[in-house]
């Protein structure tokens, strides 16, 4: 059917109107798209560029160099040594088994470490480097580098790792570092990101742990370009971190090593304190261990050897262990009695060899008794009965108060691990802790440093230092931090009567210099170097049996303390020999040798010893010198 011209015109008009509307809509939509594109490409260009950069560029932390630790003379005792390792990237290696077989022909690979690396390789992304050999030698690194074309995916690398050049000499003081564990991270509310770096080392015990934040330093960072799957393509820039703070200790490494050699295989400890600022010149426990074994994680076999040793090489005996102080406690009882006005230097007591208290008999170490003795004689010959009677007159409260003034009963402020406070008992303590009343027999036992009384070797040195100086001198182990001196711990006056202190010091002089003194055989004869000391025997068992007749672990502990020189005190020394027997026989000779070594700043002249001892001392000095040299040579070879 044909349309009329009018209908045709109307149809064309309608189509044109619809086309115009449709075209307008299309044009408007294109305009909106254009405006949106402009907004995104111009107005939001910086934002999208940043998002793109963040997807393309990663920030990775660079571990800081750990601060070093030095002795008082600048000798390094904890440093950062280059640590060479060999890594492999699985996707670059291709046939990993074949590459490792070729690598093993060049470098000796530890089977356990290799198995660990293979297991880690299975868990990790194929482009991540995995360590297959750690702490290898420079010659190993050289061989790998020279054969690089035949070892696809294998890369020799260098980093820093903690190293202790003096090995076991400072283990109980400096401690050691080790890889960060989940337990370490749990100590922090918000752990620093650097702690999550694989195999990052953190202080575990000792000074390394106590000064962790200062020694750690601040991490650096590097920007690396990565592809879509996270593989590093190139490094864009790097900012090195801030090295940790260096710390200088008060210890003298030569004296410390001498003491280690002198203690030998004994289960023993020794502390040497300077009396000017309280500096700890040496603090040694024997036997010890090599902290380098802990840096990368000690093996089960090596740890079992240390753990199962009955001489307890892992224990820091100088601060961690507390022993009954034995007769070294008698100076405290004497000062308590003198200060309270109950005793004068001329007062005497009769010792028949025992004292009856109620239904119990308390014996003196000398069964025949000492007869009539005064204050000086009671300390010189270590009469027990004299102090039994003194304790009944003075009372435990005054004795405990004097013990605390002289440094017992509170943990010394030193940056070492597991520092004990020891124990100074009194009536309140027994009622609170034991639920029982204080007995007269408790006071009798405490008067000679037995019963509940406990003190560490460091506390014994502090006690002796305070008697020698009359000041509340405290121990200082850290001399400088980042080159800045730490405060002196010379202390203020204890407020004790100087005459009373002088009487106790004179009695201690008699211990070492009077023929009837318990320490006379270990005296010093050099003029101006005389020592003033006190022996102690700490009972381990209740029954009265000779030490020679019981196993080693049931024998009494041996103690000896002194200050020297007597007329011009410079140092205080304490020695404890576990299960050594008598203090005068086992601990006093060691104490005398260490004291002379410290006073002379090296091997003392033979003339300082009694003539009867000189041939033996000469042989001993030569032997100890050889042992120290062998220790240093062995340490250098192990480095």
Folded structure, characterized:
- This protein is an alpha+beta fold.
- Strands 2, 3, 4, 5, 10, 17 and 18 form a seven-stranded mixed β-sheet that branches.
- Helix content is 40%, strand content 19%.
- The chain starts with a helix and ends with a helix.
- The chain is elongated and about 155 Å long.
- The chain has 24 helices and 21 strands.
- Helix 11 (253-263) crosses helix 24 (614-638), helix 15 (330-340) crosses helix 17 and helix 17 crosses helix 20.
- The mean pLDDT is 88.
Give the topology.
Elements: H1 5-43, H2 45-56, E1 57-62, E2 69-70, E3 76-89, H3 90-93, H4 96-104, H5 111-123, E4 129-136, H6 138-146, E5 154-163, H7 171-174, E6 176-179, H8 182-185, E7 201-205, H9 206-210, H10 212-216, E8 220-226, E9 232-239, E10 247-249, H11 253-263, E11 268-274, E12 280-286, H12 292-295, H13 300-307, H14 317-320, H15 330-340, E13 349-351, E14 354-357, E15 360-363, E16 371-373, H16 375-380, H17 384-394, H18 396-405, H19 427-434, H20 440-447, H21 457-469, E17 478-481, E18 484-485, H22 498-513, E19 532-538, E20 557-564, E21 571-577, H23 583-600, H24 614-638
Parallel strand pairs: 2-10
Antiparallel strand pairs: 1-8, 2-3, 3-4, 3-5, 6-7, 8-9, 10-17, 11-12, 11-21, 13-16, 14-15, 17-18, 19-20, 20-21
Helix pairs in contact: 11-23, 11-24, 15-17, 15-18, 17-20
């Amino acid at each position: 059917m044909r349309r009329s011209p009018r209908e045709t015109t109307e149809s064309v008009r309608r189509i044109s109107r619809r086309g115009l509307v449709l075209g307008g809509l299309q044009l408007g939509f294109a305009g909106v798209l254009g405006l949106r594109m402009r907004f995104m490409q111009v107005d939001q260009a910086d934002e999208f560029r940043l998002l793109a950069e963040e997807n393309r560029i990663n920030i990775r932390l660079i571990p800081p160099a750990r601060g070093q630790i030095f002795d008082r003379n600048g000798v390094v005792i904890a440093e950062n040594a280059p640590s060479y390792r060999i890594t492999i990237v699985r996707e670059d290696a291709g046939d990993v088994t074949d590459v490792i077989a070729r690598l093993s022909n060049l470098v000796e690979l530890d089977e356990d470490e290799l198995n660990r690396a293979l297991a880690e390789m299975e868990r990790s992304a194929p482009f991540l480097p995995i360590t297959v050999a750690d702490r290898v030698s420079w010659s190993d690194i050289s061989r790998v580098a020279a054969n690089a074309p035949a070892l696809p995916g294998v890369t020799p690398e260098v980093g820093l790792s903690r190293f202790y050049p003096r090995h076991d000499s400072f283990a109980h003081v400096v401690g050691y570092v080790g890889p960060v564990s989940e337990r370490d991270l749990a100590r922090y509310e918000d752990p620093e990101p650097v702690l999550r770096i694989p195999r990052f080392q953190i202080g575990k015990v000792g000074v390394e742990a106590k000064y962790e934040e200062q020694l750690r330093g601040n991490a650096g960072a590097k920007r690396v370009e990565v592809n879509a799957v996270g593989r590093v393509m190139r490094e864009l820039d790097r900012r090195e971190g801030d090295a940790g703070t260096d710390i200088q200790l008060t210890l003298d490494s030569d004296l410390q090593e001498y003491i280690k050699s002198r203690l030998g295989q004994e289960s023993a400890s020794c502390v040497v304190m300077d009396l000017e600022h309280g500096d700890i010149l040496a603090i040694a426990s024997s036997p010890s261990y090599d902290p380098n074994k802990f840096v990368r994680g000690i093996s089960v076999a090596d740890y079992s050897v240390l753990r199962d040793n009955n001489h307890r090489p892992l224990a820091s005996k100088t601060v961690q262990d507390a022993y009954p102080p034995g007769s070294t406690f008698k100076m405290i009882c004497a000062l308590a009695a003198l200060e309270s006005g109950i005793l004068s230097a001329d007062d005497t007591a009769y010792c028949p060899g025992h004292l009856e208290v109620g239904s119990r008999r308390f014996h003196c170490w000398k069964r025949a008794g000492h007869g009539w003795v005064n204050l000086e004689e009671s300390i010189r010959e270590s009469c027990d009965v004299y102090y039994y009677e003194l304790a009944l007159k003075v009372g435990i409260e005054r004795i405990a108060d004097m013990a605390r003034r002289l440094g017992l009963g509170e943990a010394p402020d030193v940056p070492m691990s597991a520092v004990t406070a020891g124990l100074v008992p009194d009536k309140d303590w027994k009622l609170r802790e034991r639920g029982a009343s204080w007995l007269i027999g408790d006071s009798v036992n405490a008067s000679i440093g037995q019963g509940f009384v406990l003190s560490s070797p460091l506390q014994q040195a502090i006690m002796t230092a305070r008697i020698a100086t009359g000041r509340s001198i405290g121990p200082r182990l850290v001399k400088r931090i980042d080159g800045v001196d730490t405060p002196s711990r010379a202390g203020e006056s204890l407020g004790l009567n100087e005459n009373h202190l002088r009487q106790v010091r004179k009695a201690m002089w008699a211990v070492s210099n009077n023929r009837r003194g318990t320490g006379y055989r270990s005296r010093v004869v050099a003029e101006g170097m005389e020592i003033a000391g006190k022996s102690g025997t700490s009972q381990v068992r209740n029954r009265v049996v000779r030490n020679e007749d019981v196993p080693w672990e049931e024998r009494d502990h041996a103690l000896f303390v002194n200050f020297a020189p007597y007329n011009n005190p410079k140092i205080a020394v304490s020695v404890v020999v576990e299960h050594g027997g008598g203090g005068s026989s086992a601990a006093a000779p060691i104490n005398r040798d260490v004291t002379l070594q410290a006073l002379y700043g090296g091997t003392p002249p033979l003339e300082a010893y009694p003539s009867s001892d000189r041939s033996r001392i000469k042989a001993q000095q030569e032997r100890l010198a050889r042992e120290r040299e062998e220790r240093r040579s062995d340490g250098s070879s192990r480095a």
